[in-house]
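chain below, 221 aa
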Amino acid sequence: MSADLPRIAILTSLVFAVAAVYPRAASGQDQPPRIGPFVVDIRGTAPNFPSDELLAASRGLAVAELPGRGLGLDGGAHLYLFKWRVITLGVGAQVTFARASSPAVVQDGAETARAVTSWFTSFTPQLSFNFGTGEGWSYISGGLGTSVWSTVPDNQDPLPGDQERLKTLNYGGGARWFAKPHLAFTFDVRFHQIDPGSPQGELPGSPRTTMLIIGAGVSVK
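prediction:
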C-alpha cells in the first residue's frame, strides 16, 4: 500500500489540474488574471493516524489502543515567482497541527485498553507547481521538513521519543477556487512521510510511517 501513495497523490493532483484549467479554457475569457502574487491558506483537516504493531510496540501500547482518525488545522503561505508556459512556480511553507484520541475500554470492571492521545505537529518549506489562472488553480507541491509525533496514554508522562523531531517528507496536491477576487475555497490532500524514530530503552524506535491528511478551508490573496 505504501508504494502506491505517491501515485495516489499524483493522480489526485492531475484531477484537480484538469478541473481548474479546463473550465477557463472553454469559457474563452480574454487575459484572465495570473496566479498570485501570494496566497495564505487556513484549513481544517481530517488526519488519519496510522495503527500498526510496530508503531504500538515503540510506545509500549496495544494496537487497539492507538487512536485512528482525528481533527486538525493547517496553515500556509505561498509566493508565486514566475510563469513558464502553463506552470507557475511557487515557494512557501506549511505548518500542521493534528490530534486524535481513543477512549479507555473497561470490561467487567477491569480496564482492558487505556485512553491514548496522539499529537502531530510539522513545519515544511514547500515548492509548488501551479496550473490555471488567478480565478482558480490546482497545484502539486512538496518539501522536506520536520515533525513531532507523540502517542501517550492519558495521565502518563511522554517518552523521549514523543518529543523527538523527525525528518518528514510532505507532498500532495489540491486546488483553490476564487468565488471573490481575494477569497477562495481550498481543498488539499497531503501525505507526511515520517522518518523512523530512535529506540527508547527496551522499546524499539517507531517505524517509517506515512500519514494521510485531507483538509478544506479558505485562501486569501
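Helices lie at 5-27, 53-58. Residues 20-27 have pLDDT under 50 and may be disordered.
thats it, cya
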